[in-house]
Amino acid sequence: MKTLKDVISLKFKTSESEGVIFHGEGQQGDYITLELKKAKLVLNLNLGSNQVGSIYGHTSVMTGSLLDDHHWHSIIIERHGRNINLTLDRHVQHFRTNGEFDYLDLDYEITFGGMPFSGKPSSNSRKNFKGCMESINYNGNNITDLARRKKLEPSNVGNLSFSCVEPHTVPVFFNATSYLEVPGRPSQDLFSVSFLFRTWNPNGLLVFSNFADDLGNVEIDINEGKVSVHINVTQVKKNRIDISS
């Protein structure tokens, strides 16, 4: 395919921060890749570079954040030559690609949800997408519907299910005054705690526990955007251990 115009749209939701949403490339060096990196959306596009190196077409644009929140996000990519509109959840970003070429020349397949292993260093370092997509539309073709009805030829549909499995994790929201208190485990010499958290606040107490028999306490908090662990042990002379990350 050699196109002057492209319109690509889809919706996705995921709890993973990395993953290739779609990818296409050509023998001339053209490519387009949309992926999640550190829970941000990254579009890499190249309409062509020349051998001499005077024309460098690679263009990379990043938008959004915290997109691994398992909520639906919508993407629209509209390209006319070198002019691109990238829309994420109604927020539009306009940019112009590098280089001097207007056509996107894709000789190979376009893949959604990952990219084929090509032997290039860029392919094996990228993770495939893990999550849900719907309403995939590529230049007027309803890819989701065609895949469901097995009308894509040629196609390689690997282990897809046409339903969206909800994650088993249940998030808990804390306001400034709420907290959750759980019973401790007496007569155990091991203290172990693990959790995921997300906040926009730079300060706050995450975990606090007193040890039995007045042996001390442990405190995990956020201080100026950094996670700190404080362990107080009353039986030791150097009784306070502070770890910051």
The low-confidence runs, each spanning 5 or more residues with pLDDT under 50, are none
Distance between the termini: 49 Å
Number of strands: 17
Strand/helix succession? EEEEEEEEEEEHEEHEEEE
Strand adjacency order, main sheet? 9-8-7-2-12-13
How large is the radius of gyration? 24 Å
CATH class of the largest domain: Mainly Beta
Question: What's the arrangement of secondary structure elements?
Answer:
Blueprint: E1 2-3, E2 5-13, E3 19-25, E4 31-37, E5 40-46, E6 59-63, E7 73-80, E8 83-88, E9 91-96, E10 104-105, E11 111-112, H1 121-124, E12 132-138, E13 141-142, H2 143-148, E14 204-210, E15 216-223, E16 226-233, E17 240-244
Antiparallel strand pairs: 1-10, 2-7, 2-12, 3-4, 3-11, 4-5, 5-6, 7-8, 8-9, 12-13, 14-15, 15-16, 16-17
InterPro entries: ConA-like_dom_sf, Laminin_G, Neurexin-related_CASP
Domain Laminin G: 1-164
Pfam families: Laminin_G_2 (PF02210)
Q: Mind explaining what this structure looks like?
A:
- This protein is mostly beta strands and 245 residues long.
- It has 2 domains: 2-149, Sandwich (Jelly Rolls), CATH 2.60.120; 169-244, no CATH class.
- The protein contains 2 helices and 17 strands.
- The protein has helices spanning 121-124, 143-148; strands spanning 2-3, 5-13, 19-25, 31-37, 40-46, 59-63, 73-80, 83-88, 91-96, 104-105, 111-112, 132-138, 141-142, 204-210, 216-223, 226-233, 240-244.
- A 6-stranded antiparallel sheet has the order 9-8-7-2-12-13. Strands 6-5-4-3-11 form a 5-stranded antiparallel sheet, with no helix packed on it. A 4-stranded antiparallel sheet has the order 14-15-16-17, with no helix packed on it.
- β8 and β9 form a beta hairpin.
- It is elongated.
- The termini are far apart.
- The relative contact order is 0.15.
- The mean pLDDT is 87.
